[in-house]
Amino acid sequence: MNGVLNIYKDQNMTSHDVVAIVRRVLKTKKVGHTGTLDPMATGVLPICIGQATKIVDFLQADKKTYIAELTLGVTTDTEDAWGEVLETKEVHVTDDEISKAILSFVGEIEQVPPMYSALKVKGKKLYELAREGKVIERQARIRHIYQIEILSIADNKVKFEVVCSKGTYIRTLCKDIGEVLGVGGHMSSLDRSATGNFHKEQSISIEDLKAESFDQSAHLIPIDLALTFDKKIEISDKAKELVMNGVKIDLAHYFKSELKAEDYVMVYNQQEFFALAQFNHDRLQVVKRFDTQRSS
Predict the structure, then answer these.
(1) Can 3-62+197-226 and 232-289 be said to share one CATH topology?
(2) Domain 3-62+197-226, CATH among 1.20.1440.230, 3.40.50.720, 3.30.2350.10, 3.40.50.300
(3) Which end of the chain is more exposed for a tag (fewer CB within 10 A), N or C?
(4) pTM score of the predicted model
């Protein structure tokens, strides 16, 4: 069994919980998720199975789309609704001021990872240190906000859609917006509606997965369709044999258009996807091989 399941994660579940359920239901060990969702967040969580676990890093790097709710006037220690309230303030800001503050974050931003996060420092997760009452200095990281659309503003609650880069903390974004407005704020709900090629509309629930009528073949997305790379080549039987035997050969002559440094190319033989190549130093060489006849 090789491919990706587009799972929709409910609240009160960790990403590791979902992996454990998939392993148990599908009776397979080689399973991995493609990006942690906080237990209280909901949304799209692609789960890689078998040979598809080799593309986890690529799927994690894809753009993410979230629907978030920001509650202004209340700050918490976790930057979301499930932490301890630190401060409350009256909210006397206009809708225009809120919109301007939120849209000012579009583009390249710096984010300081929250203490309540799974980021590791010297082998220990930050949230473990936070629970011990410790606060340590964290380095700001560059993130990219590609787009924000404000969906609604009602009293002190703002709902917006954000498209962002990997590693963006939406609760930190909510906190920072509150600080810009001078009233504080926290994230009161979060739903990931898309990541890469995976969208909420095509996702399946854990209940769907557990159902006796669940059809694995209908929902297991092939490895190549899970990736977002648009360049493809078709190579000969002999070239495939060399690649699968680990021989490093230059496949650049199979690609008729221009390639740029670090471009990824999907490699096919007789219309069957079996490898991923990357262009570097004027050579196109395979970096991942997929034996789809095996699950590991």
Answers:
(1) no
(2) 3.30.2350.10
(3) C
(4) 0.89
DSSP state of 270: T
pLDDT bracket for residue 214 (50, 70, 90):
confident
| Tokens 């209340």 -> residue | 74
Per-residue pLDDT tens over the stretch 107-163: 999 998 776 666 676 667 766 666 767 776 778 899 999 999 999 999 899 999 999
> What is the pLDDT at residue 217?
80
Task: Return the CATH fold of 64-195.
Answer: Pseudouridine synthase (3.30.2350)
User: 135: left (phi > 0), else alpha (psi -120 to 50), else beta?
Assistant: beta
Write down the catalytic residue from 17, 38, 80, 224.
38
Q: What is the pLDDT of residue 116?
A: 66
May I ask the CATH class of domain 232-289?
Answer: mainly beta
Q: Is the dihedral of CA 57, 62, 65, 70 positive or negative?
A: positive
Q: Is 38 a catalytic residue?
A: yes
Of residues 274, 277, 279, the one with CA closest to residue 287: 277
User: Averaged over 17-44, what is the pLDDT?
Assistant: 91
